[in-house]
Amino acid sequence: MSFALIQKVNDEQKKAQVVDVRSGDTVRVHQKIKEGNKMRIQVFEGVVIRTDNKGQQTSRITVRKIASGVGVEKSFLLHSPLVEKVEIMRRSKVRRNFLSYLRQRSGKSARLTAVQFDREAVNAIKDDHAEEDEKLMKEQKAAEAAVKHAEKEAEEAELAAKAAEVEARHAENN
Predict the structure, then answer these.
(1) What pLDDT does residue 128 have?
(2) 2-125 CATH, one of 2.30.30.790, 3.40.525.10, 3.40.50.11600, 2.60.40.1180
């Protein structure tokens, strides 16, 4: 009974569809980042060197990229609400699941052989919840921009009024 209940809760938390990511794929992961009270999307692009628990709720990918000459690895839970979307940019031919040997390689020896694939068909996943979140974030940004614009106009009007007052005083004195 308790296992069935746990399974039900886990299935509710799962995303309806996720992209079929494999080791060797070059992916672009869009992740939500919270800074203070603002939310933004940060993109992390690199090569998938590891996939874990593919069919389960805890499915995870480890993505590696070189930033300023230093190797950076990040693990992403595919069903996490913080992961907005995963785009596959390029597929490569690999014969193992864990590409940990890429950590010791650099330059041309770290290249993987590309494979032709249909990028649009692979990345075509419709997630209504993610689209709603994206619309909400855009609306919030637009509202913040409108408030800033109104504040700026009020400030400019105030400065114009002060300038007119100064000119009037100057005209009185002359």
Answers:
(1) 67
(2) 2.30.30.790
Whether the model clears a pTM of 0.70, i.e. scores above it, the answer is no
Q: What share of the chain is helix, strand, coil (3-state, %, to 5)?
A: 40, 30, 30
Q: Which residues of 128-159 are buried (b: 16+ CB within 10 A; e: fewer)?
A: eebeebeeebeeeeeeeeeeeeeeeeeeeeee
Which residues, 6+ apart, have CB-to-CB distance to 116 below 8 Å?
91
Q: What is the pLDDT of residues 137-169, one digit of tens each?
A: 888 888 889 999 999 999 999 999 998 888 888
Burial degree of 86 (CB within 10 A; 0-12, 13-18, 19+): buried
User: What average pLDDT does range 119-134 have in this prediction?
Assistant: 73
CB-based contacts of 106, cutoff 8 Å, min separation 6 = 66
Question: In angstroms, rounded to a whole number, what is the distance separating the alpha carbons of residues 60 and 52?
Answer: 5
